[in-house]
């Protein structure tokens, strides 16, 4: 097992109130690659009840680009997989209903499985039917009993979050109709490694999938990987389609991506070790840049408070002394502190009210949308600091 050690970390989405600082939860953040199947995964597990509590702050509808993407996803399913008599779709981790709302509007049978109450309630307000539980083999059995087999089981930015992945696959195998498909979209290991996006590593990301490791995982549960499609979301996502064996003909993309992974040596020890060296370089460069700006009297505000910000600030030793606040459009994050580094989260209006010299873009996966919205910052001389694939100013 080859490992990368990022040290002591809090929960990525563990935004906390100042009075909660004393009892903050920390764990040791390391990822390892299995020498046999090349799956990359966290080596320590934070219990899922601690991660996906009732006030889970991530809202999938928080980005216009994501809203459009999930609406298109829903329309695609309605036009392709959900055209038979009384079709049924299940979404694992349906969050605030960003995808299922379109399915519900079309009057198609659906069920979201979402353990975090607040986001589940947001989706119910959109007319989405939700089971507020964790998805596993036993939940799948219950759904099958009550609703019958699913034509589509979908998950976005969720399947790789589930430490009990084997139980999820057994559940899908139970629930899927004979010609059904299991479709999921997750950040792609090739993009994480290629962009040195080490901030994608935090407690919620239990697995870092690649085509080869997903194919091996599917085969272990008597399922077959039949298609892969790269997407631009979250800095590089792969969409996997899995079916029962011999029910669908695998597309050429599967073989092509397997060949690409082999050529780029994605599943090799040395690649992960090189990634580890680049991560240390980014930490040192970013810390040095922020200290230099600070020493010269410049101000840096963080832009976006994704879970990623906890990894970067804690790993790189960035606190409120170097970045006095981060702004984020999510109301439930505002007024709280970034986990571990305790940088306050404020609204984007505070950023606009008094532009700093620099904005450190933690939500770099939304760079296009954010930079377009914040055109004025740059027009007034402000500069963006980015740290993937290396530290640079634009
Ligand atoms: P995201 O990268 O989607 O999530 P994570 O790393 O936690 O999985 O989070 C992006 C954050 O950026 C989210 O908290 C919302 C915020 N944001 C803004 O503040 N303004 C914006 O224009 C956009 C698109 C996002």
From TrEMBL:
Gene3D superfamilies: 6.10.250.3100, Methyltransferase, zinc-binding domain, NAD(P)-binding Rossmann-like Domain, Vaccinia Virus protein VP39. GO terms for biological process: methylation. Residues 2-50 form the Methyltransferase putative zinc binding domain. Residues 233-389 form the C-methyltransferase domain. It comes from the Bacteria. InterPro entries: Methyltransf_Zn-bd_dom_put, Methyltransf_Zn-bd_dom_put_sf, MeTrfase_14, SAM-dependent_MTases_sf. The keyword Glycoprotein does not apply. PANTHER family: BLL5978 PROTEIN (PTHR43861:SF5), TRANS-ACONITATE 2-METHYLTRANSFERASE-RELATED (PTHR43861). This is Class I SAM-dependent methyltransferase. It comes from Sphaerisporangium flaviroseum.
């Amino acid at each position: 097992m080859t490992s990368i050690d990022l040290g002591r970390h809090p929960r990525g989405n563990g935004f906390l109130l100042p009075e909660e600082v004393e009892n903050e939860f920390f764990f040791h953040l390391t990822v390892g690659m299995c020498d046999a199947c090349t799956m990359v995964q966290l080596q320590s597990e934070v219990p899922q009840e601690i991660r996906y509590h009732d006030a889970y702050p991530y809202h999938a509808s928080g980005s216009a680009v994501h809203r459009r993407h999930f609406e298109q996803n829903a329309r695609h399913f309605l036009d392709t997989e959900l055209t038979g008599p009384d079709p049924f779709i299940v979404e694992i981790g349906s969050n605030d209903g960003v995808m299922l709302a379109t399915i519900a509007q079309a009057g198609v049978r659906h069920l979201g499985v979402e353990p975090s109450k607040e986001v589940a309630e947001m989706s119910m307000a959109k007319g989405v039917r939700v089971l507020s539980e964790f998805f596993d083999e036993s939940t799948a059995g219950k759904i099958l009993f009550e609703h019958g087999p699913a034509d589509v089981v979908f998950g976005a930015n969720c399947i790789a979050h589930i430490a009990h992945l084997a139980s999820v696959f057994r559940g899908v195998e139970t629930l899927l109709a004979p010609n059904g498909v299991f479709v999921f979209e997750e950040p792609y290991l090739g993009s994480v490694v290629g962009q040195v996006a080490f901030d994608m590593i935090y407690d919620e990301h239990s697995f870092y999938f690649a085509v080869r490791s997903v194919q091996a995982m599917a085969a272990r549960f008597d399922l077959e990987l039949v298609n892969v499609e790269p997407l631009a979301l979250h800095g590089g996502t792969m969409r996997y389609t899995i079916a029962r064996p011999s029910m669908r003909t695998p597309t050429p993309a599967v073989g092509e991506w397997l060949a690409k992974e082999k050529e780029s040596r994605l599943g090799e020890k040395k690649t992960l070790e090189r990634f580890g060296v680049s991560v240390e370089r980014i930490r040192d460069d970013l810390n040095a840049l922020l200290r230099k700006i600070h020493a010269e009297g410049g101000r840096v505000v963080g832009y976006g408070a994704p879970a990623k910000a906890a990894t970067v600030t804690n790993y790189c030793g960035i606190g409120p002394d170097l970045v006095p606040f981060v702004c984020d459009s999510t109301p439930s994050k505002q007024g709280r502190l970034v986990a571990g580094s305790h940088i306050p989260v404020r609204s984007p209006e505070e950023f606009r009210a008094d532009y700093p010299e620099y904005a450190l873009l933690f939500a770099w996966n939304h760079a296009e949308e954010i930079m377009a919205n914040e055109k004025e910052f740059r027009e007034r001389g402000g500069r963006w600091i980015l740290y993937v694939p290396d530290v640079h100013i634009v």
